[in-house]
């Protein structure tokens, strides 16, 4: 799997996606600055959106943040799931400190995690199913390279050769791992401060 997904040639094939997303970010910043002489821009959120868009385009071939995606139902669902995951990931559960709250059917973090897990699982399964259908539509004579092969496409081709190992659960776990590793908040915060410092020098 590592050679199929994380090889240098594979990552290089996604260069156009990264360039395109940076171009869209710069275009957005230019439009914001052209409205008035001085405009405040929250760079942390812009870089976060950039990270999510790059990763999701590499993983599933879709972007979920930006002006064009503001009204999309699928994009809104993805943003809501991500927001909920970040809200509960660092929260502490009062029921851990006061066990009696569990007997009182207290709405704990654990319950919220189960609800978010179901939403995220359903969303990722829909991405896998959609890619599976699109891959099935491409005939043997068609050129798969016209459409940049996503990571889900690669994992589905691995699933065909080893269906017992590369189950949908493994693929969903891989998607979640890529998302969480690629959008680390502390890393983004450091990157934001570093890039802002460079721009001001």
UniProtKB/TrEMBL annotation:
Leader sequence residues: none
InterPro entries: Cyt_P450, Cyt_P450_sf, Plant_Cytochrome_P450_Monoox
SUPFAM superfamilies (UniProt xref): Cytochrome P450
Pfam family, one: p450
Localization per record: Membrane
Gene3D superfamilies: Cytochrome P450
Alphabetized UniProt keyword annotations: Heme, Iron, Membrane, Metal-binding, Monooxygenase, Oxidoreductase, Transmembrane, Transmembrane helix
Domain of life where this protein originates: Eukaryota
Membrane topology value: Single-pass membrane protein
GO MF terms held by the record: heme binding; iron ion binding; monooxygenase activity; oxidoreductase activity, acting on paired donors, with incorporation or reduction of molecular oxygen
Cellular component, GO annotation: membrane
Family statement: Belongs to the cytochrome P450 family.
Name under which the protein is recorded: Cytochrome P450
Annotated source species: Acer saccharum (Sugar maple)
């Amino acid at each position: 799997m590592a050679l199929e997904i994380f090889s240098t040639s594979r990552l290089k094939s996604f260069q156009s996606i990264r360039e395109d997303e940076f171009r869209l970010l710069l275009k957005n910043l230019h439009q914001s600055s052209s409205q008035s002489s001085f405009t405040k821009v929250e760079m942390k959120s812009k870089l976060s959106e950039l990270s999510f868009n790059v990763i999701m385009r590499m993983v599933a071939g879709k972007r979920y943040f930006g002006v064009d995606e503001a009204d999309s139902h699928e994009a809104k669902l993805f943003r809501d799931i991500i927001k909920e995951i970040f809200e509960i990931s660092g929260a502490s559960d009062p029921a851990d400190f006061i066990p009696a709250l569990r007997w009182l059917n207290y709405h704990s973090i654990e319950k919220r995690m189960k609800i978010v897990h179901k939403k995220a699982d359903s969303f990722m399964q829909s991405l896998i199913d959609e890619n599976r259908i699109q891959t099935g539509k491409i005939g043997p004579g068609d050129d798969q390279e016209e459409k940049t092969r996503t990571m889900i496409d690669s994992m589905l081709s691995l699933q065909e050769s080893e269906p017992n190992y590369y189950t949908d659960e493994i693929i969903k776990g891989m998607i979640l791992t890529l998302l969480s590793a690629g959008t680390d908040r502390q890393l983004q915060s450091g990157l934001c401060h570093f890039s802002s410092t460079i721009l001001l020098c």
